[in-house]
Amino acid sequence: MWQFNRPPFDLARLQQLQAGMTQQQVRQVLGEPRLKDEFGWHYARPMAWPIVHVRFDANGRLSGHDYDY
N or C: less crowded end of the chain, CB within 10 Å? Predict the structure, then answer.
């Protein structure tokens, strides 16, 4: 079943993220990402469009995130 508008998790969790967090700290807040690539981590539900993108700097620290809906 398609769930076009359903975010991958409660978006209130994004408020817990702070620049400079380690990947382990981000994983504790958001859980395991659905996809990892050279651009960062990507969280999405199967059969849904909303995606949360999480970016890390060269040291593996959180540099930012955005919500693509």
Answer: N
